Amino acid sequence: MSPKTFAFATVTVLTLAAAFPAQAQIWPFGRDRQAPPAEEPAATPPPAPVVPERRVASAEDRARAARLDPLSRAVFWAAEVSIAPEDVEAYLFLSQAQRELRRYAEAADSAQQALLIAPGDRRALMQVARAKIAEGQAFYAIAPLEQARALQPQDWEAISLLGVALDQVGRRDEAHQAWQEALVLSPDNPSILTNIALSMAAGGQTADAEALLRRAVALPGSTTQMRLNLALMIGLQGRTAEAEQILRRELPPEMVEQNLSWLRQTSTSAPPTSGRTWEALRGS
After folding, report:
1. I want to staple 80 with a disulfide (CB 3.0 to 4.6 A). Which of 90, 178, 251, 273 is the partner?
2. Does residue 208 contact residue 216 with C-beta atoms inside 8 Å?
3. What is the model's pTM?
4. CA 1 to CA 10: how far, in whole Å?
């Protein structure tokens, strides 16, 4: 070590030593060493709350849900699909409830979701078609209905609904061919007869529509909606009192008055618009 280097080292040591007071210069193991203050133990975080596992409803709960009103069913099945996003059946029931609530775009979306999970599922194809027809977008119901018919050629329901879609887009001849094909598969089916009658009414043939609806409501399996359609046909021909008798048997008083008010405002010579006619088909 050169003299200059040694001098620099000496100065450095002295400088460092001068920087600390004498009492602070305590050897690590000297008896005067003060123990550092004890550290407080870290606080233990509270345990995370236990979240119960969500499970799909039992078969019994699902059966009970079928008896609920449409809004309650929509809430129930929305919860089911959130728990089990791959549950095709849950999406189909959700779609049906949404359609009954007239939330047609949502109903179509739910049915489309079921199709994504189970491509080619006939039930999902039918639900898509029903939602599109109810939404007034029948053109987009034709392809899924043709696919459903190809899957089950003897299925009168898909063919009859195809007739509805074709009729709504103005392809009346094809619609009636579809309905005749459906009647071959299911003779005297009140649902098919009702579809034909409503098509006649949309074309101004209210008297013929009335006759066909009377035949439909007299058959086993006829529904309240079919009887209401008959009341509509009768009222459109100016026989409001006769229509009122049917309405009062089928509807609560406030709804009777709403329908009667509409009938009174409608000209007896004017056929119902196609929109009004297909309004009666919603939920079929």
Report:
1. 90
2. no
3. 0.73
4. 12
Q: How many Cβ atoms from other residues are within 10 Å of residue 8's Cβ? A: 12
Tell me if 9 sits within 8 A of 16, measured CB to CB.
no
Side-chain-side CA neighbours of 267 within 13 Å: the count stands at 5
Q: Encode pLDDT of 261-271 as tens digits.
A: 888 887 544 54
DSSP string, 32-75: TPPPPPPPPPPPPPPPPP-PPPP-PPPHHHHHHHTTS-HHHHHH
Cα gap 83→230, rounded to integer Å = 43
Q: How far apart are CA 206 and CA 214, in angstroms?
A: 12
60-69 confidence digits (pLDDT tens): 889 999 899 9
* Cβ within 8 Å of residue 160, ≥6 positions away: 178, 179, 182, 189, 191, 192, 195
Unique residue bearing structure tokens 């609920």: 68
Cα separation, 41 vs 58, in Å, equals 49
Nearest CA among 166, 242, 174 for reference residue 210: 242
**Which H helix or E strand runs over 235?**
helix 224-236
Other beta carbons less than 10 A from residue 258's beta carbon: 12
**C-alpha 157 chain-centroid distance:** 21
pLDDT tens for 149-177 read: 999 999 999 999 999 999 999 999 999 99
Residue 159's CB: how many other CB atoms inside 10 A?
A: 26
Encoded tokens for 269: 């010579």
How many helices (H) and strands (E) would you count in the chain?
15, 0
